[in-house]
Amino acid sequence: MKDELILETITVTKNFFGDKSSGVNNVTVFIPKGKITGIVGESGSGKTSLLKLLSGHMKPDSGDVFFHGQPLPARTTNLQPEHGKITMVSQDNADMDTAATVWDNLGRSLPAEDVNYKIQKITQALNLLGIDDLRDQPFGKLSGGEKQRVTIARALINRPEVLMLDEPFNQVDANYREGLQHDIRQIVKEWGVTVVLVSHDPAELLSMADELIVIKEGEIVEHGSPEKLYETPKLLYTARILASCSEMTANQAKTCGIKSKRGTVVIYAEHVQIASSMSMGSKWLVKQVLYRGFYEELIVERNQVILRVYNYNLRKHPVGSKIGIKITKFYEFGRWLG
Ligand SMILES: Nc1ncnc2c1ncn2[C@@H]1O[C@H](COP(=O)(O)OP(=O)(O)OP(=O)(O)O)[C@@H](O)[C@H]1O
């Protein structure tokens, strides 16, 4: 069954300097209702611009944005009813009053007249994000993670249909981040709210998103499920963004025992196995050991070819030692595709 669409852009262009060097170009995207769509791309590729176009915060130079199949007016004119159905959370929390309490900040987007309704809505939002204990704290005194919870609670207080999240977990430490990600997934499931998520963190996008849109220099270059894009990326650009990988020319790949006729060979770190005996595989020099907690990421070298390898036998392969490796899978990309 086809997904019902809630938002779409049809050949939308927004250029900041009158040429294609910035902004977004000719972008057509479809946002399915009740799902999490992630937007991924390198810095400056146009992710935030696309989010602003989708939410009506920016007016396109050309092309159309549709919400439930109807043209979405830009917010540069008067606010329209549909604007309340699309809320956006940016990383800076700029529109929060730092001196006011969490309770008062949450109450701002609610009508003042109906006190009981207001109390009910604020209480509901506090419970939803698990921040009831913060209700009397001044917003400015909260930690980065707590601030993000309050900002998201406020964005959800009027039950929007679409929640746009621009790098929402940037300031949040790893433990807190997982809890917040889990809560957002729960809200999506229970409320059927649609989320559009911009993030730099591939792990976050892979675990949270139902669909991913890959943007490069203002153009959509690939889209699909996280599994599809991670496991069978069409573009070198996508593999680079989503995976911890090593990149080499076809000629260099011979050092890894790979025969390739294409321009570039890419090997994900998890597709390199450390051979149990030195007689197996080649002899690679361990140049760096990056400690990652329960595993290490080894940077190994042979004939000036660099490979990233995951090692779960901690401290077994120190810098300067040699290991044998076996490559279980690799990707080939033509030069013109990257
Ligand atoms: N208001 C603006 N005026 C001029 N140029 C802008 C404006 N907003 C964005 N740009 C430019 O448009 C391009 C895309 O910016 P955008 O913020 O959308 O990228 P991004 O992918 O979100 O980047 P990042 O990951 O670094 O946040 C960049 O070159 C940026 O400098």
TrEMBL record:
Keywords: ATP-binding, Nucleotide-binding, Transport. SUPFAM superfamilies: P-loop containing nucleoside triphosphate hydrolases. GO terms for molecular function: ATP binding; ATP hydrolysis activity. SMART domains: AAA. The keyword Cytoplasm does not apply. PROSITE patterns: ABC_TRANSPORTER_1, ABC_TRANSPORTER_2. It comes from the Bacteria. Pfam families: ABC_tran (PF00005). InterPro entries: AAA+_ATPase, ABC_SmlMolc_Importer, ABC_transporter-like_ATP-bd, ABC_transporter-like_CS, P-loop_NTPase. Residues 7-242 form the ABC transporter domain. PANTHER family: SPERMIDINE/PUTRESCINE IMPORT ATP-BINDING PROTEIN POTA, SPERMIDINE_PUTRESCINE IMPORT ATP-BINDING PROTEIN POTA. This is ABC transporter ATP-binding protein.
